[in-house]
Amino acid sequence: MNTPPPHPFSRLVTLAAPAMVCLGLLASLQRTDSEKLQTIPMVVIGAGLTMAACVQWIYHRYRILRALRRRKYLHNHRP
User: What is the reported pTM?
Assistant: First the structure.
């Protein structure tokens, strides 16, 4: 199975969502009480993107494991 080479900025994009959460939390520490609400969308979006990436990774691993088990089952049960 041939996979395309990774994009040069793929590692940078991978770190963008966690960095967004960290920047939002740091910004909320530096703001006053009335301005802290401005950082909530950044933290929520960054956390949502991070969780979505984790779910996709788990599902991808599940599909690989399922394919391996199916292949092993078919290999062991040949007529």
Answer: 0.69
